[in-house]
TrEMBL record:
<feature type="transmembrane region" description="Helical">
    <location>
        <begin position="12"/>
        <end position="30"/>
    </location>
</feature>
<keyword id="KW-0560">Oxidoreductase</keyword>
<keyword id="KW-0503">Monooxygenase</keyword>
<dbReference type="InterPro" id="IPR002938">
    <property type="entry name" value="FAD-bd"/>
</dbReference>
<feature type="domain" description="FAD-binding">
    <location>
        <begin position="12"/>
        <end position="241"/>
    </location>
</feature>
<dbReference type="GO" id="GO:0071949">
    <property type="term" value="F:FAD binding"/>
</dbReference>
<dbReference type="Pfam" id="PF01494">
    <property type="entry name" value="FAD_binding_3"/>
</dbReference>
<keyword id="KW-0285">Flavoprotein</keyword>
<dbReference type="InterPro" id="IPR036188">
    <property type="entry name" value="FAD/NAD-bd_sf"/>
</dbReference>
<keyword id="KW-0812">Transmembrane</keyword>
<keyword id="KW-1133">Transmembrane helix</keyword>
<protein>
    <recommendedName>
        <fullName>FAD-binding domain-containing protein</fullName>
    </recommendedName>
</protein>
<dbReference type="GO" id="GO:0004497">
    <property type="term" value="F:monooxygenase activity"/>
</dbReference>
<keyword id="KW-0472">Membrane</keyword>
<keyword id="KW-0274">FAD</keyword>
Amino acid sequence: MPGTTSSDIDSLKVIVIGAGIGGLVLAQILHSTPGIQLSCYERYKAIDDRVVGFRVMLSGTTLSMLKRKIKSDIWADLAFGIGEQPEGGEKIEFFKGNGNKMLTWDSDPTKDQYSVSRWHLREALVKEASFVRTGISFERYEVLPNGRVRAFFSDGSTDECDLLVGADGTNSNVRKQLLNHATIKDLGMVVIYFKVPLTERSLKLLGSPANSTHTFCPNNQYIMLAPWQNPLAPFSTRYTQHTIDPEDSYIMLGAGSPHANFHNRRCSPNELTQSELQAEVLARTSQPGIHARFRELAEMVCLDTAYVNIVRKSEAVHPWTSSPNITLLGDAVFNMSNTLSRGANCAIMDAAALADRITSPEYRRERHQPAALDDYVRGNIERREVERQRSAMMQKIMFSGQNKLRGFIRNKALPSSLKKIDSLDREEHEGVNWIGSDGEGSVDSTGEEPKWVEELKWDEIFEGRHGHEKG
Ligand SMILES: Cc1cc2nc3c(=O)[nH]c(=O)nc-3n(C[C@H](O)[C@H](O)[C@H](O)COP(=O)(O)OP(=O)(O)OC[C@H]3O[C@@H](n4cnc5c(N)ncnc54)[C@H](O)[C@@H]3O)c2cc1C
């Protein structure tokens, strides 16, 4: 190609903005690819935020893909954070506030989910991550006459690259410049999260042994309970009223509500103190008609684990085609409601698809052409649109109890609404034939686990990390 030098072909400098799930997965894959020089910039000093304390649901497809793409020692660390899966796969049980069960959602996509500790995931991905530069916030970029991109940072420094990847989340500065029309809306819904230590007592309060539950409450509120159970230490032992060890088993308690229906509206929900957040959840769970087990769980929360998610929606974008040297991945493209747990799955899939493209010999030949990343961009947006639609349908279910009539209609339509969400699912669930389809505790005739589950070798990993503590 005219204008291409041998150094263009030999070395490619990539800058990734943001060390979240998507940015770190991309960086880890590219880091081990010969001919790629990589830097990843993260605005925070510690690659941490409060949500890191919680779990993230990842599908078997996402996990097997990660296993194939990242180095085996990183996978081994990460795999250690995959929580105990209930027999027959994950299920979501729906309840009314009074504790009466409505139905169990146990479709193939639901069962093919794994509860993964975000903390383990993050720890694994930052391991040997000398390429991450923390405490440096990206501000803007400039495309240079030679086609390279110069990135400008808040500390006054700059860095140049052949490809700039914005993996900087929902409020992405890279997207603001690349697609300056894209908007973000506050939807007025807020979810308060806490961790509850998983003990023999709290397990009994789940309403269902080891499954996630969604409970519809009055005032368009809901309570979500979801356990993360360390396979080798099923009950929590290292916790106080304030904190819990990141390796300890826990229940994630999520309490969703329109902000307008908060008992305490003295300030924005993310400015409420931890005690005020607990008091808010206690007030909701003390209402008449709410089963007493919810209040008991709310009394058991570890205060310092409080995390407030103000639900924001970034406008979906059209494929951007004119910038072969600047691209986006993950929530920076556009986000989706987390009620269906698909955002991190998408970010990981984006990272793998982009890495595939960047490391292909075709990309090295075509990277100066305007359409060099078009297929990646189109695939990314298509995947996100599907998952965003499915997530929006789930969000509508969770927040459609504005009054008794609407709640009644929502409850009646629940089975068909969930079926619609499933019918739009596009993932292949390679593990479906090992999961029982006729209720809890059943295993199908093959009794086989997906190959990657067999290969986890929990005991070896645990011994490697905690040999002295074991047995
Ligand atoms: C409470 C909650 C529960 C969820 N549960 C699930 C789930 O179970 N399953 C699932 O699939 N998804 C879930 N999601 C969604 C998922 O967490 C996100 O979709 C996913 O983290 C997006 O990854 P990302 O890498 O694109 O962005 P992020 O994880 O947001 O990472 C962006 C990174 O960029 C950094 N950054 C931002 N601006 C700059 C800047 N200017 N300069 C440098 N760095 C910058 C940020 O500090 C951050 O580290 C959940 C989300 C929430 C809030």
